[in-house]
Amino acid sequence: MAGRGTDEHPHGADRLCDIGDRVYSRAVRRGRVPRRDAEPVPCLLDLALLHPDPDDMDWLVPTAPQEVMTRLLRGMYDEVSASQRRVGSAVEAFERYAGLGRGARSPQAFASSAGEGPAIRVLDGVARIQAAMDEATQACTTEVLTVQPGGIRREAELSEGLHRATALRGRGVRMRDLYTHVARHGQGLHTYLELMGDAVEARTLDEVTERLILFDRTVAFIPANAERSMALELRHPALVEYLGTVFERLWRLALPLAAPLPDTGFEGVSHRERSIAALLAEGHQDAVIAERLGISVRTCRAHIARLSETLGAASRTQLGVKMAQAGLDGPPRSAAASASVTIPDRESRTAR
């Protein structure tokens, strides 16, 4: 009975269930209750709030409320005393371990420069991210490097960081931004660059990495989750240097915003469709291709349909064969490489 009461009524005498409260209250008022009244609440017996009447075992009599209160207070005192002992033990252990490390530099100290805080800090929430970015902007004196995925930049996204960009321009800080080729079609980006003048230089690629903002090769910010509601603030010199190297290599591969996209060398196939074909050949799904190129899934599928029509493919399987025959199953060549390669005419391509 004790086990059943514990499972079905997991509480103490200080917080009885509703039916237990009613039965015990009735027992206190009347002096006793029939045993059958307590059958739904075995907790009253388990907690010794009711016990059999020695004169008649079919009845149960209550334990005096004063005795119950004394018992509760004694139990609470024992729990508090035990908690205090645990806290004391934890403090002693902490002091002992802290003493072992006195005079030695922590890994965080080795990983970051003096006065710069932790080498890696998690920023939870947009407000904290914005505050950290504002702080880094104020300390920046030389350059800011950014990678901006996601296709066409909305006006709201560009306006969000405009105050930081304006402050940086005022101090002569150089800014370089990497976007996807799709961003070229957004008027907001062109307006932003006209406003910033020579302070900002932008280039584009078929696809870029996740978002990155790097200040003075000293502190970098990257997303910490898919929703971008969390970010990592990185000050570890090796990490920051690595991210800077990645940016520079992407920058050399990218095309200036003012430069036209290179011709694909395939009649009727646009540069974007050439990129889609290469990703299709790698086995990526439409949604993945759309995300990597910064376009919607609907737009991606429209380009695939146009590519199929251009190559005369009636199915996705046949499209793969046609792309391979036409040489569209690999990554697009650079502009220089395209100029140095003789592209066969359409008739000879389809015959291969």
Description:
With 352 residues, the protein is α+β, with helices and mostly antiparallel strands. It has 16 helices and eleven strands. It has helices at residues 2-8, 18-30, 43-46, 65-100, 107-111, 126-139, 155-160, 162-170, 187-196, 237-253, 271-281, 286-293, 297-311, 316-326, 335-340, 346-351; strands spanning 33-34, 50-53, 56-62, 120-124, 143-148, 174-180, 200-205, 212-215, 219-223, 230-234, 255-256. An eight-stranded mixed β-sheet has the order 4-10-9-8-5-6-7-11, sandwiched between helices. Helix 11 (271-281) packs across helix 13 (297-311) and helix 12 crosses helix 13. The longest helix is centred in the first third of the chain and has 36 residues, at 65-100. It is elongated and about 105 Å long. It starts with a helix and ends with a helix. The model is unreliable at 1-7, 105-116 and 334-352 (pLDDT under 50).
Write the element-wise H/E pattern from the N-terminal end onward: HHEHEEHHEHEHHEHEEEEHEHHHHHH
Poorly predicted runs:
1-7, 105-116, 334-352
Q: Percent of residues in beta strands?
A: 15-25%
Number of helices: 16
Number of strands: 11
Shape: elongated
CA-atom Rg in angstroms: 36 Å
Helix content: 40-55%
Strand order of the largest sheet: 4-10-9-8-5-6-7-11
**Kindly, what is the distance between the CA atoms of the first and last residues, rounded to a whole number of angstroms?**
84 Å
Largest sheet: 8 strands, mixed
The computed structural class is: alpha+beta
Average per-residue pLDDT, rounded, comes to 78
